[in-house]
C-alpha cells in the first residue's frame, strides 16, 4: 500500500547547528555530504552521526576513485555530548547557515580494489591496505533548502528514523589528499542534516537517489517502505534557486552479482505540477555497508552513479537500504 502523508515542517537558520538531546536511547544528530567531480569522475561522501546517549559517534568516509576502487573507513569514536560535529578525524563547521559550510577529514582509509569485499568488513579491513587521507572542502549552497522539523507527531516508523531532516544541493571545492598525492577538487553534491531518534532497522527498505547536472539542475527522489506496509514517495527538483516538489516516484532496478546489488536504475519523478522527469542511472562503483543492531542486520549499498536526463549527464549517489534475513 502506497500513500503520501502531508505534514508541515519548520526550518530556521538555527537548525544548521546542534539540537537538544531529547534523551531517547537512540538519539542521533548527523550531517552528511556527498560530492562528485565530473571532470575527474571522482567523488565520495563523509558522514558524522552523534549518538551521545550511547556515548559514541558514527564516522564514515568513502571516496570513489576513477578506476572503480574505493577508499573507505568507519569508526565509532567515543563522545560524551552533542556539542559539535568533530569525531574520528572528521569535522564539520557551519560558516553561514544555508550558504557556507566546511568539511574536513584527516585519517586513514582502506583502499579496496574490489569494493564488494566490504560485505565482510572484518575480512576486507584485514586483507586490504590502509592509506592516509585528507579532505578539505568548502561547501556552498547552490539550491534551495528542502525539509525541516516535522510539526506534530509522525508515524511510529518515521519517528524512529528522524524527527527533523533537510537537504540541499551544493558545490564542493578544495583538495583531497590520498597517500600523499594532493588533488584539486571542484564538484557538486547534496548534503543533509538529521536529528532525533535513529534506527537503521526501522524502515522495511528504502531507495534514495541524488543527482547534480550543474548548479542549475539537480534532484533527490526517495521511496521509503515502512514495516506496516505503507510507502512514502517524494523528493524535489531544483532549477537554480527554484524548488519543485516531487509527489510520486517509480523506480525500476537491475541487480547484479551474487549479492544482488543495484547496477542500473530507471526512475520516473512526477512533480507537483504534473510534469515528469525520466532519469537513467548507471552505477560506476558500489560499496555495500552493514549495520547491526539488536540482532538485525541492515545492508546499505552506496553506489556512485552516472545519471542521464534530457540529454544531460550528471553524477550523484544511489543508496539502497535493505533488511537482511
What can you see in these coordinates?
With 325 residues, the chain is mostly beta strands. The protein has a single domain, classed as Beta Barrel (AttH-like fold). The chain contains two helices and 20 strands. It has an eight-stranded antiparallel barrel. The two termini are 22 Å apart.
Short description, anyone?
This protein is mainly β and 325 residues long. The protein has helices at residues 121-127, 156-159; strands at residues 8-10, 27-37, 42-51, 56-64, 70-75, 85-87, 90-96, 100-112, 130-141, 146-151, 164-178, 181-197, 205-214, 217-225, 231-239, 242-256, 261-271, 276-293, 296-309, 312-324.
Q: Can you give keywords for this protein?
A:
2 helices, mainly beta, disordered N terminus, eight-stranded antiparallel β-barrel, 20 strands, 325 residues
- Low-confidence spans: pLDDT under 50, at least 5 residues? 1-6
**The CATH architecture:** Beta Barrel
- Rg (C-alpha, Å): 18 Å
CATH class term: Mainly Beta
The beta-strand count equals 20
Mean pLDDT across residues:
93
Q: Superfamily at the CATH H level? A: AttH-like domain
What structural class do the secondary elements suggest?
mainly beta
Distance between the termini: 22 Å
N-to-C series of helices and strands: EEEEEEEEHEEHEEEEEEEEEE
Q: What percent of residues are in strands?
A: over 45%
For the biggest sheet, the summary is:
8 strands, antiparallel, barrel
Helix fraction, binned, reads: under 10%
Q: Provide the spatial order of strands within the biggest beta sheet.
A: 2-3-4-5-8-9-11-12
Name the overall outline.
globular
Amino acid at each position: 500500500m502506497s500513500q503520501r502523508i502531508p505534514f508541515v515542517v519548520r526550518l530556521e537558520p538555527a537548525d544548521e547547528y546542534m539540537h537538544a538531546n531529547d534523551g531517547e536511547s537512540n538519539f542521533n544528530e548527523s550531517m552528511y555530504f556527498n560530492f562528485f567531480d565530473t571532470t575527474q569522475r571522482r567523488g565520495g561522501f563523509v558522514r558524522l552521526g552523534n549518538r551521545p546517549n550511547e556515548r559514541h559517534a558514527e564516522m564514515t568516509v568513502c571516496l570513489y576513485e576513477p578506476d572503480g576502487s574505493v577508499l573507505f573507513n568507519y569508526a565509532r569514536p567515543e563522545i560524551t555530548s552533542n556539542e559539535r560535529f568533530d569525531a574520528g578525524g572528521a569535522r564539520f563547521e557551519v560558516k553561514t547557515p544555508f550558504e557556507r559550510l566546511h568539511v574536513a577529514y584527516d585519517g586513514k582509509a582502506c583502499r579496496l580494489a574490489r569494493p564488494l569485499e566490504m560485505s565482510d568488513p572484518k575480512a576486507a579491513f584485514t586483507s586490504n591496505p590502509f592509506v592516509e587521507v585528507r579532505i578539505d572542502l568548502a561547501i556552498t549552497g547552490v539550491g534551495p533548502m528542502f525539509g525541516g522539523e516535522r510539526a506534530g507527531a509522525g508515524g511510529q516508523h518515521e519517528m524512529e528514523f528522524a524527527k527533523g531532516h533537510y537537504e540541499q544541493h551544493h558545490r564542493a571545492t578544495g583538495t583531497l589528499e590520498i597517500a600523499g598525492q594532493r588533488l584539486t577538487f571542484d564538484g557538486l553534491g547534496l548534503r543533509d542534516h538529521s536529528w532525533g531518534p535513529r534506527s537503521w532497522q526501522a524502515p522495511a527498505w528504502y531507495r534514495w537517489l541524488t543527482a547534480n547536472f550543474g548548479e542549475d539542475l539537480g534532484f533527490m527522489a526517495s521511496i521509503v517502505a515502512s514495516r506496516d506496509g505503507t510507502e512514502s514517495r517524494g523528493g524535489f527538483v531544483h532549477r537554480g534557486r527554484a524548488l519543485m516538489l516531487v509527489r510520486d516516484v517509480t523506480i525500476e532496478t537491475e541487480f547484479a552479482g551474487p549479492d544482488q546489488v543495484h547496477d542500473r536504475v530507471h526512475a520516473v519523478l512526477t512533480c507537483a505540477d504534473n510534469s515528469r522527469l525520466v532519469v537513467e542511472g548507471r552505477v560506476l562503483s558500489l560499496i555495500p555497508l552493514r549495520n547491526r543492531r539488536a540482532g538485525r542486520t541492515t545492508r546499505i549499498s552506496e553506489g556512485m552513479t552516472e545519471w542521464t536526463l534530457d540529454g544531460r549527464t550528471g553524477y550523484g549517489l544511489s543508496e539502497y537500504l535493505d533488511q537482511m534475513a
